[in-house]
Design a protein that fits this description.
By secondary structure, the chain is of the alpha+beta class. It has eight helices and 13 strands.
């Protein structure tokens, strides 16, 4: 390693050693990054070039056999994606036996058991995870990603990124409400590329529903996916976003400490919508089409 590389590594280690690590209740439900504003036209142009490449989650992430096909598809059946980073070929591949065990624990159909299994498995460093379930192993760039504007955008963040992808939710579709993981495991970031006003993110925090519309204007947002969440698209066009996770909380250091269970920091992005009513409207639209 040359002197410049060693200097950058030393700086990064210093930042990590002084980093404030916070769990989900210590962070806002969502946060708009202050210093991030990307060229939305370039994002849209690059997304359109890949418009024919979307697949369902099981097609694009074969290693997710470890998380029970029925469980994955029940959550992501309306969610299409294009991987921009893929499963690390050097990571140990899941075995048939481990897939069966994981299916029995995380895919029982019992919501509480599924949540408990996920939280036990997704420790902060992911050491106890089956390789196929550990998002930190989804770090190998695809040909479409290398040299793209997507890569330039992602590399502008302080922390290294994993599981970079384009995601699409079609008109009249709803993502099944679910919990992913605490931000101590990884930090979820989304950059909307195409999004009508009818595309709405919903979260449930301490029994209270929160609703937001994320504008496709080049802004980047942190999503606190340790809380139950979903997306409803009752618009007439797909909602397409660049989505990825960051390996540590370096980029969250700009968020001040506060009582985030009582405070909302999203201003005019906050909506007065009710999930059940919005979903029913989207479902009716889907039937009508």
């Amino acid at each position: 390693m040359d002197r410049m590389g060693q200097k950058n590594l030393t700086l990064k280690n210093t930042i990590n050693n002084n980093m404030l690590i916070r769990k989900k209740y210590d962070l806002p439900t969502m946060h708009k990054f202050k210093s991030k504003k990307f060229d939305i036209k370039r994002l849209q142009e690059e997304a359109l070039k890949l418009a024919n490449n979307y697949g369902n989650v099981m097609e694009t992430n074969k290693a997710l056999c470890s998380n029970n096909h029925e469980l994955v598809m029940s959550v992501y059946k309306h969610f299409k994606q294009i991987n921009l980073t893929e499963f690390d070929p050097e990571a140990a591949s899941p075995t048939v036996e481990s897939c069966k065990v994981m299916g029995e624990t995380a895919g029982t159909g019992d919501e509480n058991i599924s949540k408990i299994a996920k939280y036990k498995l997704k420790s902060r460093l992911g050491k106890s995870l089956n390789p196929g379930l550990n998002e930190h192993n989804y770090n190998t760039p695809t040909e479409a990603y290398i040299g793209s504007y997507f890569q330039e955008v992602v590399k502008s963040f302080k922390a290294d990124a994993i599981r970079v992808r384009l995601v699409r939710l079609d008109p009249g579709k709803t993502l099944t409400p679910h919990i992913d993981y605490d931000p101590t495991y990884a930090v979820r970031v989304i950059i909307p590329i195409f999004a009508e006003e009818e595309a709405t993110n919903y979260f449930w925090r301490k029994g209270k529903q929160e609703a937001y519309h994320l504008k496709a204007d080049g802004s980047a947002y942190f999503l606190n996916i340790g809380f139950k969440h979903t997306v409803v698209n009752s618009g007439s066009t797909p909602r397409i976003s660049l989505m990825f996770s960051l390996k540590d909380q370096s980029d969250l250091q700009e968020i001040e400490e506060g009582n985030w269970n009582e405070t909302n920091n999203m201003g005019d992005l906050t909506l007065n919508k009710i999930y059940e009513e919005h979903k029913a409207y989207a479902d009716a639209q889907q039937v009508a089409v």
